[in-house]
Amino acid sequence: MGTSSGSNINQQPSSRMLPPRQQPRAGGLQTSLSLVSSDARLSPEEPRSNSDHIHESPTESASSRETWPTAEAIMAKKMENGKVENDFPEQSVIRRLSSADKISLRDIAREGVDIVCEKMNHLPDEFLEELKNNLRAILDGNGGSQQREDFFILQKLVQSRTDLTAKTLIRAHRVQLEILVAINTGILAFLHPNISLSQTSLIEVFVYKRCRNIACQNQIPADDCTCEICTKRNGFCNLCMCVVCNKFDFEVNTCRWVGCDLCSHWTHTDCAIRDGLISMGASVKSGAGPTEMLFRCRACNRTSELLGWVKDVFQHCAPAWEREALMRELDFVSRIFRGSEDPRGRKLYWKCEELKENIKNGVADSTAACRAILMFFQELEVDSPKSLENGEGGRLIAPQEACNRIAEVVQEAIRKMEMVADEKMRMYKKARMAVDACDRELQDKAREVQELKLERQKKKQQVEELEKIVRLKNAEADMFQLKANEAKREADRLQRIALAKSDKSEEEYASSYLKQRLSEAEAEKQYLFEKIKLQESSRVSQNSGGSVDPSQMLMYSKMHDLLYSGAPKTDCLPNERHPFRKNP
């Protein structure tokens, strides 16, 4: 029994998808996005004409309606857009559309391919995008019953047409083909702007020659399967779809899907339980004796045992599950073995219920619960020889067969114990490495703390040195201020001395100037005196010879009075500026 199911969402749409049982196990439970089939939107009263009667799965209610593309799909979209732009150039002028030029979704679903294509070639891209948006709103399912009725009408119109073949669709407009495929499949992803399939792929999806799962895209029937379901059910892909409900999702490494050991077809666990495909039956190995829980595949009508499958899933995938995933998987196992009459199946059912209750109450975490369920499976393997000793319900078996079975069980137990021992050793080494890493980290932190202490001490010394320098500079500033004050006082004193000396020099200059003027006046007086004497002598001589002019006598008398009356007045004051002396 395989350990995984669904499809790989990271797979390129153009590449071949591996069967679900071949998906990698080590990745744990992958619950990326889910994509329901188009049948999820159909009511039981109107089943799809291209498939058997569809059963609604309760687990599909949370599924997404879109597949988000990978980087390769986005590049393919850009390349395809380039081709479309070359085939249908954009309108350079946006004109107002008349009612005759417009086209509706019902026209696309009803009218001929060539007619619709001709109309679309003359419509602007904005109008075509609006058509796609209208269909997206209908497929979104948020508009109520009216939109669902509109979708059923469109789908009925498309599926009732006989002219929609691969030969006619090759002439269809790109947007027209996308809308027809979305209406026929009911999948919103075909209208997503970031997802682009080639025109050939879209046509093959429409005519049920390629899987409608965007992440699968395998040619169908997949692997050239010749079973009745793959050959007669239109659009069914045994690599990613449920045999019962015809839906697909991206759940892998989980108990949600049950696979057939013989034909590799897959079924939802809920669908299998609801349709009675999981029930008690005779042991697959012995064919007789005690019964156990079995899964009956609807495709090949053969059975597969479930206990070993559940054990295989948990041993390979449980260590990677988180709390919610582990709770979900335990719930699946509980529902599978709820009606089990096998002692081992009952024990497994009660163990799952106990672990679920412990996780809910916080008694055990996901790691402890995982260890507990794995240990429980080992205990079941050890207990299996006891049932052999009891003759498997009373039936006696040959001693050699019993020994062989016991040897197989012992070897399996030893292998499981070795696996557990290896896992424990790996966990111990991992823990030891973690402890060593913590020790190294503590040592590094201690060195960092010591370095920080040294750095702090160094900074403290630097601060103290700076404080000393500041104090020294403050003392120097005080000293220079004191010297500046003394210099100012000295300057004031020197200024006063200079002013006093200036006043003294002014006085000395005035005194010397007055003395000089006085000496000059004395010289002038002496000169005048000599001149008067000379004139008097001449006057006497003149008197002896004749009469004297009265006016001349008057002038001589004034000169005489002037000379003998004292020193003449100076024409320059002492404090006035002398014409021959510079100002101090």
TrEMBL record:
One cellular component (GO) term of this entry: nucleus
Region (Disordered): 1-67
UniProt keyword terms in alphabetical order: Coiled coil, Metal-binding, Nucleus, Zinc, Zinc-finger
Coiled-coil annotated spans: 435-504
Compositionally biased intervals (Basic and acidic residues): 42-58
MF (Gene Ontology): zinc ion binding
Listed Polar residues bias regions: 1-15
Sequence ranges assigned to domain Zinc finger PHD-type in this UniProt record: 241-301
GO biological process terms held by the UniProt record: maintenance of root meristem identity; maintenance of shoot apical meristem identity; regulation of gene expression; root meristem specification
Keyword Disulfide bond carried by entry: no
Pfam family, one: PHD_Oberon
Subcellular localization, as worded in the UniProt entry: Nucleus
Principal place of residence: nucleus
Listed PANTHER family: PROTEIN OBERON 2 (PTHR21736:SF37), VERNALIZATION-INSENSITIVE PROTEIN 3 (PTHR21736)
Record function comment: Probable transcription factor.
Protein name listed in UniProt: OBERON-like protein
Organism: Rosa chinensis (China rose)
